[in-house]
Structure formats: structure tokens, C-alpha cells
Amino acid sequence: MSGLAQMVDEVRARLGGRRWLIGVPYLWYVLLVLIPLLIIIKISFSEMLITEVASMLTWRQGWPSLHLNFDSYVFLATDTLYFDTYLSSIKYALATTLICLLIGYPFAYFMVRSPAHVQHTLVMLVMLPFWTSFLLRIYAWKIMLADDGVINALLIHLGIIDGAIQIMNTPTSLMIGMVYSYLPFMILPLYANLSKLDMRYLEAAADLGASPWKTFWLVTVPLSKAGIIAGAMLVFIPAVGEYVIPELLGGSDTLMIGRVLWDEFFSNNDWSMASAVAVVMILLILLPMAILNKYQTEAAR
Amino acid sequence: MVIQSEVKTTEQDLLRVVGLSKIYDGTVKAVEDVAFSVQKGEVFALLGGSGCGKSTLLRMLAGFETPTQGNIFLAGKDITSLPPYQRPINMMFQSYALFPHLTVWDNIAFGLRRDGMAKADIANRVESMLSLVQLNQFARRKPHQLSGGQQQRVALARSLAKRPQLLLLDEPLGALDKKLREKTQFELINIVQEVGVTCVLVTHDQEEAMTMASRIAVMGGGRFLQVGRPREIYEVPNSVQVADFVGNVNLFQGEVTAADATCITVRSAECMHAVTHSAAVRVGMRVSLALRPEKITLTQVLPLADDNWCVGEVVELAYFGAYTTYHVKLDSGMVLKVQAMNGTQTNVIAVGHRVYASWHTLAVVVLTQ
Amino acid sequence: MNNAFAKSWMIAVYAFLYLPIITLVVYSFNASPLVTVWSHASVKWYVALMADDDLISAVKLSLEIAFLSALMSVFFGTFTAFALNRYRRFSGRTLLSSMASAPLVMPDVIVGLSLLLMLVSVQHWLGFPDRGLFTILLGHALLGAAYANVVITSRLREMDGRLDEAAMDLGCKPFQVFRLVTLPLLVPALVSAFLLTFTLSFDDVVLSSFLSGPGYSTLPMVIFSRARLGLNPSINAAATVIISVVTIGVIALSLYQARAARQRKREMALVYSESNQNT
User: Fold this and answer.
1) What is the Cα–Cα distance from C188 to C194, expressed in whole angstroms?
2) Residues B193, B171: Cα–Cα separation, whole Å
């Protein structure tokens, strides 16, 4: 009988632990992720009054009446500015991803091939800028790229250009800032992936007569596919919605959707429009997010 | 199968397992209807290849897996639904699972502290455990500061510290290299016998099972194939599967041509077999005959007997120092494995020789399944 | 691929990563108020920093928020990591894991906007919270918990599950297993998670801008508002201080870790030679 009582206690204790362990984080994320997302969806369908959002649900003769307002979306679809901005955000994000991959892949590959005792330091040196303030590093590029800045002075000194050229506040300065900020996000997953690569595969390929170049293309690159995809998504997704970099380095002409959202919210006080912009942005990055999720769960196995 | 009906309950049974099954996802049968009992002081081995269910069975005994069906009794008490921390059973884990953040001393004291034992008693018990495994001078070290053999002894001391009624050993020598294994095998069994604890041991290594266990259960597909003393398992396997898993074996397929009370005659493609056998076989029945390689004699002269020999050509020969292994290709196409001790006489048999392989009527085991 | 090419590629990338930071530090010692025009070396901007009340109060607020939000991040990150790793199957597990990784991948502007609109709704109903320290804290803790979850999960994954079983086998109840075995082994990961989330919070500008109220300006917000207007020597000086502190901290930590790893290796080598003598 005491055995049974103990069993009941045990089951209760286990269920209790489980309930808390799952319940606490669930509540946390439902409150701070799920509900906020539902709220911006709701607000994107609401009418914007002067200072507040109109209520969607009104009571008419005792019956609830749902009032969906598509104004924001209609405006989003008709005003070509939005479409152009989404397109240019994706273009900048894609270009950033591609350049990061072109710089980062060889870099990660060389890191892995470096002597084992320096690898720890090499990784640290990639991580270090990541630990120091992102904002300040972007600000530093303002100094570098200014008309009378370091880069212009260097180019004139080397005789490449005659007089100062404008780099700041152009798509070039934006791209430099984006690649600079997101490069570690490309290098680190690639390094993690490549360092797990069994060197015996490369030796086997060489043994079977493949040249180093062939081995690289036929063995190394296919085997690091997961790292490439993870790195690319980690760069692309936040790059699409980037706000700080275009604000500080991009000048007023570069179109990025993060800035449009910011302006709709802070300057125009149009919460409904800002929410609609955000909802469309989420839809845009849903696919890359799903790809990233798939590869991360596969990598975890 | 017959084995389960053989389970008899005696006063001395410490562990009794009845109709135990573990089914995952409603379909995958990891352990199926297993029943056995272990007497006090016995070392009982579960032997089988990977995926045979031996580990799942052990984990059910420890309490990490809940059986789908059946019961586990320890000293007459049903412990089936008791959580691991309430069972008077301790386990020595595969690759030891020593706590890396605790010293040897604290690892051994860990279980005693959970029981709320007095400090002085804990100290005494830990010291005596350390002496038992001869690690007194290593008490303050962390696990990573020990060699593999020393870690194994700490794990043993930790699992014995609480004086469990039943000790579970999960591949106790699996993490050691070959040379250390033999030495440790005897050390381990000496300590276990000194303490007098009842053990259930899981291993995939038949030599380990044979040297350490007093009884062995050979497992396959989640079931017990045969339970018996090491000698029985080896000499009188009850099925082709057991004969094949435990040691090397030559298998002949044949048909019973004559049978009387003590002797039967079997005709196979290779030769006629006269076998001393009492099991129920009928004339015309198809049977397998198991013959261990070391029970065969190779000669270059024609044997005198009518049965139990065949002729073939030596196709391979491997010299192992103490003994030599021959592969003899018979005229039927079957390759006979033969093992001969290397005595003082010079061996004249070489590859390419035509030889006669012969054996005693008691050497062959008739298998009907 | 030859060695010289590899070396120059690596040097070029490191130069790309570090040149802006070095430039920033160098120009912080420029006496001229025009940041890019070098006149002569001076520490006058550092002196001016001491009198910059806006900046100093922003530093205080940022440190406070970073400390508290890092604590919260580690707390909730640990919970999430345990829920997702201990229980392989429960209804809504996929939803929880997606929600937990959403703040990592979603652009900051969306996280900020959605959180703010939620908080505004809550305030509409309940009359609190007012925008300020608490709301910023919540945003940073949300982002931080997502990062902490990743750090702690990777440690939990490499931990031997048999250790938990061994503890249970020796008489630990589930909570004792956590307290006596899992937690002590998790400490290094908790420390890394704390440092990472502290840094993230101390660096964040977008979430803070959405979630802060009047009178609550974090350091990045002050720096951002000045940087938007153009180059500003006070930022250079402040940046140099921050970068030095972080760099020294990170280097010290990594040296400490490297030393611990070397020590461990030495001890293992010692054991190896000992056991060879014995046999």
C-alpha cells in the first residue's frame, strides 16, 4: 500500500517538475513573442485615428461587429515606394550575403588549415569585434569613409585617385558597413562546420587521384553545405531588416525597409502602416527562416 | 520456449523477473516476455550483440526505463514502479559516468550523502571502499586525473559504497584496452566475490561473460535464447543462433537416418555422422550439427572409423602461437574450421595438403532449431 | 592553394575587421574638434567625457539594464534549454522552439515594434507598465534569453546523459540531480551566457529606442543620436574606453580558459606516464 502511495507521489512530483519546466518558458515566449506578433497583425488591419488605434471590435445592437481595415495594405500595394524599398532591401541583403560568403568561405577554410595551436587565437580575433559595440564599429566607418577620411587619404596617397571621392552616404558605404558587420556571422558557422570535416575524406580524395582544387570543389564544398546555408541565412535575415547601418552609413537615398518602418512609426506615428510593413517583412523572411530551422535541427542530430 | 517454464522460485532468489517486456512506440519490441531469477551471490550475465535488448533489460532493472509489461521483484518485493533513487540497486555505468566536477572521494561519498549518513560513517565507508580498490592515495584527484583502469575502479567503488543488494555492471570492461582487460577482469570478479554482492552483468564479449559469470543468458531479438552455466552454453548450445554467437562453430545440415535410445545417425553432404544424443529426434528429420573447431583432429592417414570423418584440402592456415587455425575445403564445398594446439611435435600439415578431419561421437551437438 | 595566398587573405580580412576600430581609437586622441582632420595629440576629449552628464547617466542606466537583463536572460534561457532538451516530446514543442529562436533571427525593428505595441495594449488595460527601465529590460531579456538558450543548449547536448542517471542511481531525486550534478557542470556555460547577454544589452540601440520612455536614454541611444548628426569627438573618446574595457575583459577570460585547458592537458599527460610506469 505504501508502495502505491509512493508511486502516486512520484508521478505527481514528476508531472509537477515537467509542468514548471515547460510552463515557465512557454508563458515567457507566448507573452513576449507570440502575442506581440498577433498584435501587430491585428493593428495592421486597424484604422489609425489621430493618436490611437481604432477598435476593431464594435458592438452593434448587442452583436459584435468585426471591422477589418485593409487601408494600410492597399496603400502598401499601390504606392511604388514600398515595393521598391522591399526590392532594394532584398537586393542589398543578397549582395551582403554573397560578398560575405566570398570573403568568409576562403577565410574559414584557411583558419581550419592553420596550425592547431593558433586556431583558438584566430577564432578569438574574429569574435572580438563581435563582443565590442556594433554601433561604435559602424560609427568608426563614418570616420574611415568621410570625404577627408582615412580611405580617401590613402587612395590619394597611393595615386589611385586625384581628388577625394564621395564614398559616404552611397550604396558603397552601406555595403561596406553591412559586410563588415555580418562577416563574423558567416565565418563562425562555416569554421564550426569545416573544422568538423574529417581530413581523411580529403586524403581519400587525394589518394584516389583528385587534385587539391578538384578535392575542394568535389568534397569540401559539398560537405560544408550545412555551414554555408546556416551562415547565409544568419546574414540574410537580419540584413533585410537592418536599420542602424543604413541610417548611419547609407545617406538619405538608400532605400531599406527597416528605415521605412522606423519612420512610419516614429515620424508619421502611423502604427497601422508600420505594422503592415512589419507583417510583410515577416512574410518575406519566413522562407529563409524555415530553411535555417531545418538545417539547424538537422545539424543538431 | 522452454526456458521460461524452468524459472523456479526458491527462498534464495534475490531477483525475480516475470514476463518483462519493453515495447517502444507500440511496435518496436526491445525486450519481449523475459523471465529469470538470480540467486544471492550469483553473477548473472546478459550476453548478446548490439540491439539484442540486453541494455534495455538492464535499464529496466535500474529503473531508468519503465517496463511495458511484467514485474521485477527484489528480495520478494515488487520494485517495478520504484524510481531509480529508491531502489537498493546500484549500477556501474558504461564508460563509468564519474562526476567530472567531484574528486574521487566525493564521487564515492555521493550516494552515501543522499542517504543522510553521519559524516564519520561516510568517511569510514569511503576509506574502506578506497582500500578495497587500492586507490587510497588518489582520493583527492579528479576523474580526469586518473587512468582508464583507475577510473574503472572508482566507478566500482562508487557503485558498491551504498552496499546495494544488487549490482548492475554495464559493459564493465568495454572502455579498457585489450591488455588491461584481462587483468581487470579478474580484479573485478575478486572484489565482487569479496564483497559477496549479487551481480547482473551486461556484455557483448563472450569471453568476458564466461570468465566472470556463474550463469549466462544469451539474448537475441529481445528474448532469452538460452540460460545456463558458461560450460553448458558453449558445449551444449540449444540452437544454431546460440552456437553461432558463442565461439566459433562448424555447422552441418543433415537428415536423421537412424535413431535409437543413445545414438543417432545423420547423413549430411559431407559424411555420415554417428552422434551420441538423447534428444527426441525422428528418422527423416532435418537437423543441424554443431562442431567446435578445437574438437577436430587433422591427420594425413585414413581414419579407422566408419563415421565422423571427412576429407579435404587445407586452403588457409593461420598461426596464432599457442594454436593454429586451418581452413579445410571439403569436397562438398564446405570450408571446415579446425583449431589445433601447437604441441612439441613439429606440425607437418601445410596449405595444399590433403587431410582427414575426424572427431569423437560426443563432439557434435544436434540442433533442431 | 599556396600558403602565401592564404596568409595574405587572412591578413586582409583581419585588417578589414580591425582597421576601423584602430582608426577610431587613434582619432580619439586628436585635439581638433573636426574628427577627421588631425591637429595634434591630446586627451582633452577624455577630460570632457568626465563632465558629460548625459553620457555618464546613460552609462549608469545601461550598466544597470545590462546587469539585470543578463540575469533574466540566463534564467529564462536555462528554463528554455531544459524544457527543449529534457523533453523530446510534448505538444507544442515545435512552437516553443520556434518562438525561442524567433528573436534571434527576426530583425530588431520588428521585435521592438511588436513588443512595444503589446506593452502599449497592456498599459491600456491595466494602467502599467510605463515605458522606461522595466520595458527596456523586458526587451533585452527577451533577446538575451534566446541567445542564452543557444549557449546553454550546446553545453547540455555535450553533457553525458549518463551522469544524470548515475546521480539518480545513487539516490538523487530529480531536483537533487539538477542541484548537485547538472548545475555545477553547467556553470561555465551560464557564465558565458551571462557575459554574452550583458554585452548584447549594453550594445542594443533599436529595441531600447522602441521601448524607452522620456528620461530613459541608454548609452547606445545617446551615441546613436549624436552619430546621426555627424562625427563627434566625444563618441571617439567614449568608444575607446568601452572598447578597451571589453577587449581587456575578453582577452583575460580567454587566457584564463586557455590556461585551464593547458593545466588539464598536463595533468592527463602526467597520469598517462604514471600508468605506463605501473604496468
Assistant:
1) 10
2) 18
Tally of structural domains, chain C: 2
pLDDT tens per residue across span C214-263? 889 999 999 999 998 888 888 889 999 988 998 898 888 888 888 888 88
C103 and C216 fall within a common domain:
yes
pLDDT greater than 50 at residue A203: yes
Q: Which residues of A touch C19 (CB under 8 A)?
A: 144, 150
Residues 72-101 in A contacting C (C-alpha not used; CB under 8 Å): none
* Whether C89 contacts chain B with CB within 8 A: no
Closest alpha carbon to C100 in A21, A25, A286, A39: A25
Which residues are paired to B299 by β-bridges? B356
Look at A10 and B78 and tell me if their CB atoms are within 8 Å: no
ipTM above 0.90, yes or no: no
CA distance A280 to A73: 9
Do B93 and B102 contact (CB within 8 A), yes or no?
no
Residues C86 and C220 in one domain: yes
Do B61 and B139 sit in the same domain of this protein?
yes
Secondary structure of residue C221 in the 3-state scheme? helix
Class of residue A156 by CB neighbours under 10 A (exposed 0-12, middle 13-18, buried 19+): middle
- Nearest CA to CA, how far is C14 from chain A (Å)? 8
Q: Where are the beta strands (DSSP E) in chain B?
A: 13-24, 28-39, 43-47, 69-74, 77-78, 89-92, 166-170, 198-203, 215-220, 223-228, 250-259, 263-268, 272-276, 286-291, 297-299, 309-319, 323-330, 335-341, 354-358, 365-367
> CA-CA distance, B303 to B256, in Å (whole number)?
23
- My answer on whether C67 and C200 are in the same domain is yes
The yes or no reply on domain A79-300 and CATH 3.80.10.10 is: no
Pair B38, B163 in one domain: yes
Residue among C10, C90, C231 whose CB faces A142 most closely: C231
Q: How far apart are alpha carbons C166 and B95 in whole angstroms?
A: 11
Residue B103 has a pLDDT of 94
Q: Do B144 and C268 touch (CB under 8 A)?
A: yes
Q: Which residue on chain C is closest to B98 by alpha carbon? A: C163
* Pair (C80, C218) in one structural domain: yes
Strands laid side by side in the B28-39 sheet: B28-39, B13-24, B69-74, B77-78
Determine, yes or no, domain membership for C138.
yes
Minimal Cβ distance to C239: which of A13, A139, A240: A139
Burial of residue A143 (number of CB atoms within 10 Å: 0-12, 13-18, 19+): buried
How does DSSP assign B250-281, residue by residue?
Answer: EEEEEEEEEE-SSEEEEEESS-EEEEE--S--
Please, are residues A138 and A177 in contact by the beta-carbon 8 Å criterion? yes
Side-chain-side CA neighbours of B55 within 13 Å: the count stands at 9
Q: How confident is the model at residue B331 (pLDDT cuts 50, 70, 90)?
A: confident
Q: What are phi and psi of C170, to 5 degrees?
A: -90, 10
User: What is the distance between the terminal CA atoms of chain A, rounded to a whole angstrom?
Assistant: 44
**What would the pLDDT profile of B260-317 be if each residue is shown by its tens digit?**
878 888 998 888 888 887 667 888 889 899 999 999 998 888 888 888 899 999 999 8
Domain harbouring B258, CATH code: 2.40.50.140
Nearest to C142 among A32, A140, A242 (CB): A32
